[in-house]
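Feature request, filed as a ticket because there's no other form

It would be nice if the structure record came with a short human-readable summary line next to the tokens. Right now we just get the raw output. Example of a typical job, pasted below so the devs can see what we mean:
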Amino acid sequence: MKRDSIFFQIFQQSPALLFDLLPDAPDNADRYRFASVAVKEPKFEIDGVFLPPDDRPGVVYYAEVQFQRDDRLYERIVSESSNHFYRNRDQFTDWQAAVIYPSRTMEQKDVYPYRALLNSDQFHRIYLNELGDIRELPLGLALMRLTIEPPRKAPKAARYLLARSKTEVVDPQANRAIIEMLTTIMVYRFNKLSRSEVEAMLGTSLEKTRVYQEAKAEGEVIGEARGEARGEARGEARGEARGEARGQQIGQRSLVLRLLDRKFGPLPDRIQDSILEFDAVKLEALAIALFDFTTVQDLEAWLQVS
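Raw output as currently delivered:
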């Protein structure tokens, strides 16, 4: 899983999020553009550049997301940013750089040659695991913190942030952007799961999200299309609808059992038999609840009160 791809999509959707990580933001932060730029002689490709609006010169920000050790990282950043700034000097008043690490352990070991720059207000090193508790962070920072949340905690944290966005963000468009970023993070982090599994994990539908629509357009979404195709070929709309509903319920039941099996290992027959009797509503409720279970006893207690 390439977390730089996650951040690339996050910053594309909301470039101003970078400035939540920095001590000082430009007064027109909401007008910055996120882009990749090429620098010739020698040829460099800078993935994360935050460009000020074209109507007036401003500070250009170079950002790097680094989740693997690179002991020549600072050499490259200084070379690329200095070269790009030099060749576009008339467009910018100043430059700053930011490197986003999961933790200090990923940082380049030998930083001595760059000690003055790294300790200046021109260079920012951000360690995601030091941002604080995900429940106490602003939503933008909490989303970035979610990228390093342990897999067993990530689903619960994601559902918490989904619920929080509905109460904290009044503007529908801004709320949709947060949902898009959150689902993008979870789809990338759990890329071996099907769409249905990720939906069950989050307790929400991904069908209208950008990450799903793009995946669908590229043919990457695992759909339940066999029954639908057969129904279309026969032209039996009613039978197709009933068959699709039955197929979805069977698929949902299979998904829940698979998730429980991954979490606890093979379940006792009596628990499986009980779940096999569930209707769609109870299956959905169990799919959401199961991520909070830590033992089989938690599951059994839930089954007794459901």
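Something like this underneath would help us a lot:
Residues 218-233 have pLDDT under 50 and may be disordered.
Residues 142-220 form one domain.
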